[in-house]
Amino acid sequence: MLRKLMLRLTVKDGERAFLLRNGRFERVLGPGRHRLFDPLGGFVAELHQVVRTEYPAERFAVLKAARPDLAAEMFEAVETKADETAIVSLDGRPSYLVAPWQTRVFWKVVTKVEVERIDIAHDLKVAQRHLAMIARERNTLVAETVIENHEAGLLCVEGRLVERLAAGRHAYWIAGRRVEVKRLDLRPQAVEITAQEMLTKHRISLRVTLTALRRIVDPERVGQEETAATRFAPQHREADGGQPAPPAAEGARVDRAAGGEGRPYRPSRRRRAGPRCAAQQARAPEGERDGMTRRVAAKVAALRTTMPFNIQWLFRFNVHLTVRSVREGRRRHWWNSS
Question: Phi then psi for 280, rounded to 5 degrees?
Fold first, then answer.
């Protein structure tokens, strides 16, 4: 009968017990054995681990309202603002990274809790000391990138170019902002247009292969032009609520297929050889190279106009000439490069 009237409880060294009477907080029980007289059975004991552990923020708010002195003595509350993060170290070891507008509570009864607050509104880059303290796996607050020796990095914040990055490892705070790092390859790159066959007005078969070598010499300007092209590209459609594409010039042929509004007409790659091609070659505008059809000239012009102006183009034309003589029945080959 006496046992039913008593509440017996054992609290270990790394634990604390919250004693509740009818659901309301009474007191905290430390390590040891406790015997409480409870004839009505209204006592309830809650055991909590206090070694390097976290306490629910909602329960802390209730405890702080009832016993603010006890809450300040046993807990360390970390509250961050809109442009602020915090690194929480438990016993000298970085353990938690607190995001903006968060509240986290830690036991400090037997654990030393240290909090380092970081103003991310002015400190965009993550310091090397902080980067070593942060767990990089599945981290939603830090963006990390590596720039190789043959690359140039462009840092863009909210779509605006901020600076050029040197080779190495870089990390940035991305909470509340859009941070993007564009990596541009500075090595020469080859762009090739496959062999194109045509007939001249003298009925000579001509085969042209264009190989272009490009190299970026001004990465900042490339980044600005790409950003401007992405932001102001004529991709609006009337169905999307945007402005329609500008009308084509009178007499110009425009592809009106589905999804091709505003696209200039490009002739088919396969064209029947014969007098028709020779006639079209004869009507080519003045200034074109002798022996080129309008189709190849249009591809070369499109290749030049689509690339930024600050990219150096080193053209190497590999022209394969095959002359077929109907009268003589002979075949001769030339290799001409410039």
Answer: -65, -35
